[in-house]
């Protein structure tokens, strides 16, 4: 687990509160992509690790890699309805690749 505090000087209570904050999904991230711009493994590092990735919308096709640029590419088809989530994996970074298309994509990370 990644903390945004100094674990050597933080009190036990502060560390426990930070751990509980992550366990109870107090924070989430939304990545909005302008798909008219092409990307080649553009990195998106998350402030805190997440355990679920949900594609809410994709007006054009794109692909992602999770955590490491050498991991297999996951193709994301264009869709106007949410896709099945990717979960039960600790997600710290996402790499996005797409050719210039149209519209946008919305990715929710919890």
**Overall mean confidence score, pLDDT:** 86
DSSP strand (E) fraction?
over 45%
Q: Could you tell me the number of beta strands?
A: 6
- Using only CA atoms, what is the Rg? 16 Å
Task: Name some characteristics of this structure.
110 residues, mainly beta, 6-stranded antiparallel β-sheet, 6 strands, 11% helix
Please give a quick description of this structure.
This protein is mostly beta strands and 110 residues long.
Description:
The protein is mostly beta strands. 11% of the residues lie in helices and 48% in strands. The protein has one helix at 12-23, and strands at residues 29-34, 39-58, 62-66, 74-76, 86-98, 104-109. Strands 1-6-2-5-3-4 form a six-stranded antiparallel sheet, with no helix packed on it. The chain is elongated.
Question: How is this fold's topology laid out?
Answer:
Layout: H1 12-23, E1 29-34, E2 39-58, E3 62-66, E4 74-76, E5 86-98, E6 104-109
Antiparallel strand pairs: 1-6, 2-5, 2-6, 3-4, 3-5
